[in-house]
Amino acid sequence: MIRPKPRLAVRALILDAEERLLLVNAYPEGRSDLWCAPGGGCEAGQSLPENLIREVREETGLEVEVGPAALVNEFHDPATGFHQVDLYFRCTLRSGALDDAWQDPEGVVTERRFFSRVELASGKIRFKPDLLPEAAWGDTCLYDPLEEIVR
Fold it and tell me: Residue 99 is part of which domain span?
């Protein structure tokens, strides 16, 4: 099997004034209950922060300032050869507020909300990657090794 090159994506770790983490559900029509940090694929010719600012705006309607890297995460699908590397950055909200009327122009993200650290630790919220809380509320840059994709 010819394996495609890894896809590069960027993701935002955004904490609100109450220290809750913004997550999105990127499965239209409720196909999955899996939550992740907002972000997406990088376009050539744009810096990682430029890509992240664009992706966060598209998925949430929010404007952010991109800060330091917090996590490198890899996942793959052995059946298809798909392999993605996500680079997570700590971000600060510059403007905007979550609005239920906001529509992702690509129609991928259908839900967005802030979660407390306690909610994520409860085991009732399904999210990826596993190191997400440690990256969001920590102060170092972490590496989450290659794992199989979860849907």
Answer: 7-148
